[in-house]
Amino acid sequence: MLRWEELMSMTKSNDYPNFKLRGIYISKKLLIVFSMLVFISVLNNSSIAGLSNLGGISIILILIISNILCIILLFNNFKYIYRIKNILIGLILLNLIYLFSLLLTDINFIGLKVTIQIYLLSCFFILMIFVEWNNKCIDIVAFISSIIIILILLINAFTNSNILVKLFYTYNALGAFIYFISFFNISALYETKILSKKILFSISTICSIIIIFQCRARAVWLAIIAMIITLCLWKFITKNKRKFSIYLFTIFALIFIGVFIYPSLQTSNYILQIDQILIGYTGKSIFSGRNKIWSILLSVINEKIVFGHGASALPRNFIYTNLSSHNLYLQTILQTGIVGVLALLGIVTFIWKKFWAKKDIKQVKISAAFLVSILVYQTFEVSLTQNNLSLGILQWLVLSVGLSKTILH
Predict the structure, then answer these.
(1) How much of the chain, in percent, has pLDDT values that exceed 70?
(2) 132, 134, 138, 141 alpha-carbon torsion, rounded to 10°
(3) What is the pTM of this model?
(4) Cross-strand pairs, 2
(5) pLDDT in tens, 295-332
(6) Is residue 331 a contact partner of residue 259, using CB atoms and an 8 Å limit?
(7) C-alpha Rg value of the chain to the nearest Å
(8) Pairwise CA distance, residues 99 & 343, whole Å
(9) CA–CA separation, 214 vs 208, rounded Å?
(10) In this model, does residue 273 exceed pLDDT 80?
(11) Beta bridge partners of 404
(12) Which of 33, 27, 25 is nearest to 6 (CA)?
């Protein structure tokens, strides 16, 4: 394993396809600090000023330090670049598209912010791929996340529920946060053979399900369904590469079909009846307002479908609203056109192909299932690249753990 101080003294190898790449070793203390920063970052949207500032500082520290270490890592040893060359090309392409989109339109704060955010998240993702995510590391993060999940459930059960809204801003954000950190609990539960750990991670996983159900975060519910379906079909879709690829492209197709069909569903009497049933059970409608936003955005996107309206383009520039697109794919097309969304889907495809190489490793299997759930979740949010950066950091972290298993071993 590779310590940070060894980055400048690594040896090079010309036998790139066959070498065994050493991962970056993180000490227990450093991992605890890192985990706490990641988990505290979710407070960035808190309505409590002091906590909001703390969350913002955590995000800045994580992304700036990751950027510096990523540059050191890649420029000092080309073995790392070779091992993720396709993913790296996709990330560079997406960043260049956003940069040119920014330069070719009016350069303003929003466009600059979006472009920088995507660059910093890319660096964070690359760095995390090369961390040695062994079972010990997973257990440490899972232990911290278990404590947080159980504490949140206790707060929700024995105190005023408004406290959680003040901490996380919305129940949707809380549900997403709990779901993504539960990745570590599920991964640790799969791997550990120690009874006490199995009990702890089982309890925390059950607690996370209870919290997510209470949050009534429908996007997270759909993400969980997608994750479970992927896990159930794993043996079938991994029988050969063709089925593995078809499954991913089927997910792509279903997502884009859904984006185009959803705005018109409100005209169907059958869907309206289902909506009434859903309201009765959950208190929420199928039609959250996204259908109206998406319908207008599809017309706006069609005006500049190839290169988009610029990195700073937001729905409020075309609609009287303060809401985001609530859809990563529409937001990306709105800003950078078809070229931007193709680059994004290309990155996802390269990640998926990497999972094939070590498809029998349990953590790779779980990461792949979470990848599918993230794709579904992003049909209703834009947190992977913009908006709620703390959730974006968590999602890229989840993907990097599985990729680490495929690239370092």
Answers:
(1) 89
(2) -40
(3) 0.90
(4) 24
(5) 888 888 989 899 889 898 888 888 877 777 889 999 99
(6) no
(7) 21
(8) 13
(9) 10
(10) no
(11) none
(12) 25
Could you tell me which residues come within 8 angstroms of residue 124 by beta carbon, excluding any fewer than 6 positions away?
62, 63, 66, 67, 70, 393, 396, 397
* Distance between CA atoms of residues 165 and 155, nearest Å: 11
Q: Which two tokens stand for residue 268?
A: 């169907």
Eight-state DSSP code of residue 45: G
For CA atoms 86, 91, 95, 97, give the dihedral sign: positive
DSSP state of 131: B
User: Which has the closest alpha carbon to 175: 216, 229, 146?
Assistant: 216
146, containing H or E segment:
helix 135-158
Distance between CA atoms of residues 343 and 321, nearest Å: 28
**Can you tell me which residue has the tokens 């989840």?**
398
Distances 162 to 175, 179, 288 between C-alpha atoms, Å: 15, 20, 22
**Burial letters for 255-286: b for 16+ Cβ neighbours within 10 Å, e otherwise?**
beebbeebbebeeeeeeeeebeeeeeeeeeeb
CA 92, CA 339: separation in Å to the nearest integer? 13
Residue 5 has pLDDT above 60, yes or no: no
Task: Go through 339-354 and write b for each residue having 16 or more CB atoms within 10 A of its CB, e for each that does not.
Answer: bbbbbbbbbbbbbbbb
Paired tokens of 382: 């834009």
Instruction: Answer left, alpha or beta for residue 131, where phi above 0 means left and psi between -120 and 50 means alpha.
Output: beta
Which position has the token pair 């779901």?
Answer: 179
Q: Which tokens belong to 284? A: 């929420």
DSSP secondary structure string for all residues of 246-306: HHHHHHHHHHHHHHHHGGGGGG-HHHHHHHHHHHHHHS--S-SSHHHHHHHHHHHHHHTTT
Q: Do the beta carbons of residue 263 and residue 292 sit within 8 Å? A: yes
Do 36 and 147 meet the contact criterion of CB atoms below 8 Å apart? no
What's the count of helices (H) and strands (E) in the chain, helices before strands? 16, 0
Phi, psi of 24, deg, nearest 5: -85, 120
Query: Which residue bears the tokens 């996370």?
Result: 208
| Length of the chain measured in residues | 409
What 85-88 contacts at long range (C-beta under 8 Å, 24+ apart), as own/partner pairs, is 86/350, 86/353, 87/129, 87/347, 87/350, 87/351, 87/354, 87/403, 88/126
H helices present in 326-388, as ranges: 328-357, 362-377
